[in-house]
């Protein structure tokens, strides 16, 4: 009898030890906006707001941009989300309604971003821009993005699948407690012209999803009937990723669907449990919470800016402990440094602008146990 009581006590402690929940990391979401010319088409403004006229019509793009900005505003106020942003079809396109069209650029947008240099190599079918890497998002970040968002217009081609593959690849491999997703606002068209250098297919999107396992929420705007294959591919991408495919026929529909797609996951994440077979082990488990192995390295993301604008080809050097890493910023002023161990570092930047050397410096502490994907912004003097 005494043996039975002891056995029951041991298993009671085993069960108590197995229910330890791991803390969740902040939600990571990248919003993808379709800025192709086909987004010029009309969309009903039903229930847009108290001042909306019943038969008023706005373009798909106007509705999408308005909904995007409102959502970004809410995410910034929350302050506990990591937010990224991607535009496609917004910088370079073909002259409309002309038998022999010339290429035309959205100069208003390029002036905002100091991005005219990209026209040397860009073609409309490859026009995908990572506007913002995933990073903590606050009101000051939205203020920097606002001029860009106001300057975009429905402009070019529809490299939707290319935008998806590139966006998926900005995510790290999934962690146990990740709440991450991609939300796409699009009319559903996927078209890249003959000049395209980086053609993307549905299969390439699915391959990228296999590597990174990011749920994709596709909100298709408008009542246009897509061809059966295109719609089937969009549904397949959403379903296989663990996301959703939704339709928005009015501005009110769009806001509702976007709000739903951005709702944080509330499902609890439990740590792996282990069977305990001895009295001593059970006693230890009852008094000591189970822990996952602490990560050893972090991946540092960052942006170099000057007067609030991104700086390309800036030299970035991370110095500290036994590490010394050096990279160069991309065309959007972003950089990535991988496998950074815990420690205190100095992050130095340098670039020559109009024959003047500009420098910036920041001290930072890297702790992979706290954040495996820290972000930093450096403003040049």
Strand segment count: 18
How are the strands of the largest sheet arranged?
Answer: 7-4-1-8-9-10
Strand content: 25-35%
By CATH, the architecture of the largest domain is named 3-Layer(aba) Sandwich
Instruction: Detail the poorly predicted runs.
Output: 1-23, 267-279, 281-292
CATH class of the largest domain: Alpha Beta
What is this structure's SSE topology?
Blueprint: H1 2-17, E1 28-34, E2 42-44, E3 57-59, H2 60-78, E4 82-88, E5 92-94, E6 103-105, H3 107-113, E7 128-136, H4 139-151, H5 160-168, E8 180-186, H6 202-212, E9 216-221, H7 228-241, E10 244-248, H8 251-261, H9 279-287, E11 297-306, E12 309-310, E13 315-320, E14 323-328, E15 334-341, E16 343-353, E17 356-366, E18 375-379
Parallel strand pairs: 1-4, 1-8, 8-9, 9-10, 11-18
Antiparallel strand pairs: 2-3, 4-7, 5-6, 11-12, 11-15, 13-14, 13-16, 16-17
Helix pairs in contact: 1-9, 2-4, 2-8, 3-4, 5-6, 6-7
Characterise this structure.
This protein is α/β, with parallel strands linked by helices and 381 residues long. It folds into 3 domains: 39 residues, no CATH class; 234 residues, 3-Layer(aba) Sandwich (Rossmann fold); 83 residues, Immunoglobulins (Immunoglobulin-like). 29% of the residues lie in helices and 29% in strands. It has 9 helices and 18 strands. The termini are far apart. The N terminus is likely disordered.
Summarize the structure.
29% of the residues lie in helices and 29% in strands.
List keywords for this structure.
18 strands; single chain; alpha/beta; Immunoglobulin-like; 381 residues; 4-stranded mixed beta sheet; 6-stranded mixed beta sheet; 9 helices; disordered N terminus; Rossmann fold; globular; 3 domains
């Amino acid at each position: 009898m005494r043996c039975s009581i002891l056995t029951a006590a041991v298993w009671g402690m085993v069960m108590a030890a197995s229910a330890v929940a791991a803390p969740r990391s902040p939600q990571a979401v990248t919003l993808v906006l379709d800025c192709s010319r086909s987004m010029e088409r009309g969309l009903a403004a039903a229930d847009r707001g108290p001042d909306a006229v019943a038969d008023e019509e706005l373009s798909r793009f106007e509705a999408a941009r308005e909904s995007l900005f409102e959502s970004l505003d809410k995410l910034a106020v929350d302050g506990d989300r990591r937010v990224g942003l991607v535009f496609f079809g917004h910088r370079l396109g073909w002259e409309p309604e002309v038998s022999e069209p010339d290429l035309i650029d959205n100069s208003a947008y390029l002036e905002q971003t100091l991005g005219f240099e990209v026209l040397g190599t860009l073609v409309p079918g490859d026009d995908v821009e990572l506007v913002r890497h995933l990073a903590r998002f606050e009101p000051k970040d939205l203020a920097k993005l606002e001029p860009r968002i106001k300057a975009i217009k429905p402009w070019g081609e529809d490299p939707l699948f290319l935008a998806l593959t590139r966006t998926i690849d900005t995510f790290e491999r999934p962690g146990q407690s990740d709440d991450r997703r991609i939300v796409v606002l699009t009319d559903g068209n996927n078209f890249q012209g003959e000049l395209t250098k980086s053609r993307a297919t549905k299969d390439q999107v699915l391959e990228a999803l296999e590597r990174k396992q990011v749920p994709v929420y596709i909100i298709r705007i408008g009542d246009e009937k897509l061809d059966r294959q295109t719609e089937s591919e969009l549904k397949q991408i959403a379903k296989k990723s663990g996301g959703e495919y939704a339709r928005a026929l009015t501005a009110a529909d769009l806001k509702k669907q976007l709000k739903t797609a951005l709702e944080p996951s509330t499902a609890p994440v439990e740590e792996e449990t282990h069977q305990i077979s001895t009295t001593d082990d059970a006693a230890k488990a009852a008094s000591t919470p189970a822990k996952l192995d602490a990560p050893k390295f972090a991946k540092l993301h960052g942006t170099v800016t000057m007067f609030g604008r991104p700086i390309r080809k800036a030299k970035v050097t991370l110095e500290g402990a036994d590490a010394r890493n050096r990279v160069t910023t991309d065309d959007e002023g972003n950089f990535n440094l991988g496998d950074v161990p815990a420690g205190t570092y100095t992050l130095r930047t340098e670039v020559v602008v109009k024959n003047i050397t500009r420098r910036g410096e920041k001290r930072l502490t890297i702790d992979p146990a706290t954040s495996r994907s820290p972000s930093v912004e450096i403003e040049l003097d």
